[in-house]
Amino acid sequence: MKKLFVLGALILFIHPLFAQLEITPYNGWLWTGSVPMYNYPPYYSSQNARVNDRANYGIRAGYRLPSDLILEFEWNHTETDFIYRQFAGEKASIPLSANYYWLGGVREFKTGPVVPFGIFNLGMVNFKAIKSGDNTTMFAVGMGGGVKYFLSDKFGIRLQARLISPMQFAGVSLGCGIGSGGGGCGSGVNTYSAIIQGDFTGGVILKLGE
Length: 210
Prior knowledge:
Elements: H1 2-14, E1 20-31, E2 34-37, E3 47-51, E4 54-64, E5 69-85, E6 91-108, E7 114-129, E8 135-150, E9 155-166, E10 197-209
Antiparallel strand pairs: 1-4, 1-10, 2-3, 3-5, 4-5, 5-6, 6-7, 7-8, 8-9, 9-10
């Protein structure tokens, strides 16, 4: 799947029909929510496990089509913690890194220095336990909107809010003790419920091309 996204990004970069490229590095905040865990004695009981909200950063590369649409590739990274309580009630924490890879469309609703827009993304997210290296990848969808404010023909600011939903969240094979290097949880912490996330980002737009 990663190869498909890399191929898609390369096609965008070399495609001669696109007249203009927008590069937007950004920072922001990722709201990650919680996921249900079901009773699995003697390791943990039923609960809503928390994925900590953390800062994120990334870069977008958008190619303007002969319309009000922009085809966009995006990479987004964050590092966070998966927090849950063990069966005895003790809190456990597993450090995670998450990388999101998106392909999507941006629809601009007007021209001028202030440009409101809507977005829709399809992609994938890879969750990885930092200490053990265990990881899982799943499909994800995102939608939202924002505004661009152009200070010149080549430079602007982009503010955006988006809802994100991985199709399936399996806790990156989060076996108890993965975060600390320990063991003993067997099949580990697993959930197959969707998780709703959101991010709020701000970045600088650099326009290349004609």
